[in-house]
Design brief:
Structural class: alpha+beta
Keywords: Membrane, Transmembrane, Transmembrane helix
Oligomer: single chain
Transmembrane segments: 6-26
Radius of gyration: 21 Å
Number of domains: 1
Order of helices and strands: HEEEEEEEH
Distance between the termini: 68 Å
Number of strands: 7
Helix content: 25-40%
Shape: flat
Length: 157
């Protein structure tokens, strides 16, 4: 091969690889920011982060004082929620769906996924919204994540 061909191949490789590097870097930066912000909120309660997960635009975490936290960051808003698990009776996964019928078939569209916490006493039911069709266009493992965290919370109750 001559030098010109090598240069063309090198430039094409750089052009093809650069978007993946940029996307990967931005994803890692977003995940780091979500985790650090979650840790800062937990540190305000004089606790330490014991278990956590960062997913898309939110982070869930458990602290050493038996509290669960959810931090959402979107372009428009930031939302931080915390629940003391000592006051919770049960945790469930809530999945809202809509059935769509075609001529020959029907299918379900998931509109919303949330972790729902039922209190021991008469306070209101609280929930961490993990997916909303209006905000995110596509499910990306939120149902499995909600099920996993429901099991973790249920074990702590």
């Amino acid at each position: 091969m001559d030098t010109g061909m090598i240069m063309v191949i090198a430039i094409l490789l750089i052009v093809c690889i650069t978007p993946f590097v940029i996307i990967s870097s931005a994803t890692k930066k977003r995940e780091k920011h979500l985790k650090e912000t979650l840790q800062q909120h937990i540190a305000k309660n004089r606790a330490t982060l014991v278990d956590y997960v960062v997913h898309n635009d939110f982070a869930l975490g458990l602290d050493s004082l038996n509290k669960i936290y959810c931090y959402h960051k979107t372009k428009d808003k930031e939302l931080f929620q915390q629940i003391d698990l000592n006051d919770i009776k049960s945790c469930e996964v809530k999945k809202n769906t809509n059935r769509i019928k075609n001529d020959s078939s029907s299918y379900e569209v998931v509109q919303r996924v949330a972790l729902v916490f039922t209190p021991r006493q008469g306070s209101k039911i609280e929930e961490f919204e993990l997916y909303n069709e209006d905000i995110s266009s596509q499910l990306n493992g939120e149902i499995a994540l909600a099920t996993t965290w429901k099991k973790k919370v249920s074990n702590l109750l």
